[in-house]
Design brief:
36% of the residues lie in helices and 17% in strands. It is of the alpha/beta class and 784 residues long. Helix 14 (298-314) runs antiparallel to helix 17 and helix 14 (298-314) packs parallel to helix 20. It binds ligand MGD (2 copies) and molybdenum atom.
């Protein structure tokens, strides 16, 4: 098998087949092995895949679903294997690569091609000599020179608020903690992160209602639940290991209801590659019911379910947990009043469901005393996401479904350490208590003024208010909304710095000058002056455990994320004699990067729940952080109780002749990293520029399957009433079982359509799952 990278995607090769109704099984394993062998070769493939999520191995960079305590030798899923292959690849992006390819050349390549080139090996500089010259090339630079350059740009700023420090969610606890300390030491809270585009709405809603922005269930709770609602999530692709937990719940007698506009493969049937029956048979039917909801209709559904429970109680049935409501909650009357006048016709229009379907789900809820709601981006990336999630909490509170076995809220996180990064202080508005503890530990005064989140950071750059952008991982340009504006915004800065493992478009759309700082990945040995280091991460269920990389680093030039941050901090905070500058954190940066146990000591002193950190991560499976509602129905809200909220019902209105577009992931991608050209489960092969559309809409709008169209988003600013348009060119129409009026297409190709101003109330998350579009026929190009 050749190790050479593939060519980019040629959309002319697109083939459309039937969507699958089963996930994983042998085809999944084979596909993962094919990618792994191509990227890593046979020996490295065996070495790495066997270490995935094993005790004493490294944490899977694939997703934040927890590890089972008892691991199978081959506890890997297709997507974990792909994520590892992507990082442990033997291909290299070396200085020779950059000498061969100019920026102009690389800007022509697609995301798939860029990612295929391999691991970054050297610190590289794109200088501003002749910035307009399209033939500019990155050239190698010494680490010391790179840090000096960052220093000179940071010192040239008028105020510390002119620098922005982004974080993606793979960064370890140790690196994240040092990074926020560096940034706060520099004088700002400008710490936007991928969470702003992801589960921010969950954090906002849960923080307000239960006093902590994290999920309340453990893996055992999933296994023990009687009823599980999986809303706005595609676990077959994005959290495949979750399917094993759902399978187990099912065997214990749980009912599982999928609430989704799309019939996603894994939710319908799951072939567990770990079981003989899964490999050979037809697999387990995961969902008992599939409620094909219209995009954005969930708040109406959850509110109406609440109303039905209240009505059943009023009719004399014992539905509510009165003891819980009385002892542990406030706001019950407000909530009851808010849902009392809900009108069925409105709910049916918003959801596209039948009355019978909704009543049957209410009956399931009444029959269950252990209910869990799981959700992901289908619930968090709408204008009314925070209100929707508050209504999810309301419904659970009615029956006391929090803080008991088999019940609770389960926001399923994305990146493998996105939750840990937040715990470590990667947030533009950490609570005062965190700042107080940080100041006490490092004897300095951290800035208290809130910083920029992701969208605010783009506005700041767009308005020329930011000079320096640094990304700790991730691919900001492709992940952010409104691609053209985000690109223009970044181009206005003086310097962009990307700490990365792999080449991506954020290295090509830059400030006047740009740096690539190549770093170690999770799979690699991290050797420092104090010996081999481990790092720690927190999963979606607040469990913290260690991760040890074992592979030889992709290049001798790589520094760990911790070392990069520590060296930058030394450059910034020490004078030439190594003396600490005034008003900077008191920390021995060199010692910290030599021995990460010292970082963990600081974390233990600053962040609640980390006492005995070092000892606890030695335990098999690590340890679980405290969680008031889960551990003892303690709610850190102002009243000390969980809060019922009355929320006004919202749902998207689709103007005539328009569609509501959700932007989602294919089966062959990890966010902006495109692993392959297919979306096997949805029957798409060889291309990505497709629009999934209901047949009825094809008809009404006067198009046929296979037609090429431009997608035009129409956004009317609610404040100014000004309408603006954005265009994504040349998409192929694919007839698909999605609700009428509701279309779907892949991210990041469609990010260009998401207006920067279109964000969720309260959380500020871009509304990537509800974009109003119209289809514009492509003028046929005359051939001849
Ligand atoms: N292989 C792989 N794994 C991943 C990722 C990846 O890209 N690839 N990304 C990681 C990250 S960062 C994240 S955040 C997670 C994302 O995990 P998901 O949230 O599962 O990812 P999406 O592809 O955005 O899928 C959104 C799902 O919500 C549904 N949906 C859309 N709108 C609505 C709605 O209004 N209501 C309801 N009920 N459903 C709706 C869609 O049909 C789809 O099934 O996965 C993580 N894991
Ligand atoms: N339209 C639309 N937009 C979306 C979404 C959507 O559903 N629709 N989803 C949003 C969501 S949920 C998220 S989380 C964001 C994702 O946004 P990001 O987290 O910014 O994007 P990723 O694609 O995960 O970043 C991939 C890059 O991370 C780098 N990387 C990988 N591993 C490491 C590592 O260990 N260390 C370092 N330093 N770098 C590493 C590699 O260089 C790789 O190219 O996108 C958001 N954007
Ligand atoms: Mo995410």
């Amino acid at each position: 098998m050749s190790n050479a990278p593939d060519e980019g995607i040629n959309e002319a090769d697109l083939k459309v087949g039937e969507p699958k109704t089963k996930a994983a099984g042998v085809p999944g394993v084979l596909h993962a092995m094919e990618i792994a062998l191509k990227q890593m070769g046979p020996i490295r493939t065996a070495e790495t895949l066997l270490r995935l999520n094993q005790k004493d191995g490294f944490d899977c960079p694939g997703c934040a679903w927890p590890e089972a305590d008892k691991r199978h030798l081959a506890e890997f899923c297709e997507n974990g294997a792909k994520a590892v292959a992507e990082e442990a690849t033997r291909r290299r992006v070396s200085p020779e690569f950059f000498a061969e390819h100019s920026i102009a050349d690389l800007l022509e390549r697609d995301d798939y091609w860029l990612g295929q080139q391999g691991r970054l090996t050297h610190p590289m500089l794109l200088d501003d000599v002749g910035a307009a010259d399209p033939e500019r090339h990155y050239r190698p630079i010494e680490w010391a020179e790179a840090f000096a350059l960052i220093k000179s740009e940071l010192q040239a700023m008028d105020s510390p608020e002119q620098a922005i420090f982004y974080t993606s969610g793979r960064t370890s606890n140790e690196a994240a903690f040092l990074y926020q300390l560096l940034v706060r030491g520099l004088g700002s809270n400008n710490l936007p992160d991928c969470s702003n585009m992801c589960h921010e709405s969950s954090g906002s809603a849960l923080g307000q209602t239960i006093g902590i922005g994290k999920g309340s269930v453990s893996l055992e709770d999933i296994h023990e639940a009687k009823l599980l609602l999986i809303a706005g999530q595609n676990p077959g692709t994005n959290h495949p290991r979750m399917l094993s937990a759902l399978e187990k719940a099912k065997r214990n007698g749980a009912r599982i209801i999928a609430i989704n506009p799309l019939p996603e493969a894994g939710l319908l049937r799951f072939k567990n590659p770990q079981n003989i029956s899964g490999v050979l048979g037809d697999g387990t039917e995961i969902a008992d019911e599939f409620l094909q909801i219209r995009i954005g209709g969930d708040q109406a559904l959850f509110q109406f379910l609440g109303k039905l429970l209240l009505e059943a109680e009023a009719a004399g049935r014992e539905v509510l947990d009165h003891g819980f409501i009385k002892q542990h909650t406030t706001g019950f009357a407000d909530y009851s009043a808010a849902v009392a006048d809900l009108d069925l016709a409105t709910v049916l229009a918003a959801t596209g469901l039948t009355e019978e379907q909704i009543r049957s789900l209410a009956a399931d809820l009444i029959a269950s005393d252990r209910t869990i709601v799981c959700w992901a981006m289908g619930l968090t990336q709408h204008k009314h996401s925070v209100a929707t999630l508050r209504d999810v909490v309301n419904l659970l509170l009615l029956q006391g479904n929090i803080g008991k076995t088999g019940a609770g809220v389960c926001p399923v996180r994305g990146h493998s350490n996105v939750q840990g990064d937040r715990t470590m202080g990667i947030f533009e508005k950490m609570p005062e208590s965190f700042h107080d503890a940080l100041d006490a530990e490092f004897d300095f005064a951290s800035p208290r003024k809130h910083g920029f989140d992701t969208v605010a950071a783009i506005h700041a750059m767009e308005q020329g208010k930011a000079r320096v952008f640094m990304g700790m991982g991730g691919n900001f340009v492709r992940a952010a909304p409104d691609t053209d504006r985000t690109e223009a915004a970044l181009r206005r800065t003086a310097l962009t710095v990307q700490v990365s493992t792999k080449l991506n478009r954020s290295h090509l759309v830059t400030g006047s000058r740009a740096l690539i700082l190549p770093t170690l990945g999770r799979t690699e040995r991290d050797r420092q002056s104090g010996g081999d280091q481990k790092v720690t991460v927190e999963d979606s269920m607040s469990a913290v455990h260690a991760s040890h990389g074992r592979l030889a680093p992709a290049s001798e030039q790589l520094l760990s994320e911790v070392a990069i941050i520590a060296r930058l901090a030394q450059t910034m905070f020490q004078d030439d004699d190594g003396a600490r500058l005034p008003n900077t954190p008191v920390a021995d940066w060199a010692a910290l990067s030599g021995d990460y146990t010292r970082i963990r000591k600081h974390i233990a002193a600053v962040v609640p729940g980390f006492s005995d950190y070092e000892a606890k991560i030695e335990r098999p499976g690590g340890f679980v952080l405290p969680h008031g509602p889960r551990d003892g129905r303690r709610f850190a809200t102002p009243s000390g109780k969980a809060v019922f909220t009355g929320n006004e019902l919202e749902f998207p209105e689709i103007p005539a002749g328009r569609l509501l577009l959700q932007t989602l992931r294919s089966h062959d991608q990890y966010n902006t990293t495109i692993y392959g050209k297919d979306d096997r489960y949805r029957g798409i092969y060889g291309g990505r520029r497709v629009l999934f559309i209901n047949e009825v809409d094809l008809d009404t709008l006067g198009f046929a399957e296979g037609d090429a169209v431009d997608l035009v988003s129409e956004w009317t600013d609610p404040k100014t009433r000004v309408c603006t348009e954005r265009r994504a060119e040349e998409f192929r129409l694919v007839a698909y079982p999605t609700p009428v009026g509701c279309a779907a297409a892949y991210y990041p190709e469609t990010n260009v359509l998401v207006p920067l101003e279109s964000t969720a109330d309260v959380s500020g998350t871009p509304t990537s799952k509800s974009v109003i579009i119209r289809l514009a026929a492509r003028t046929p190009v005359a051939v001849g």
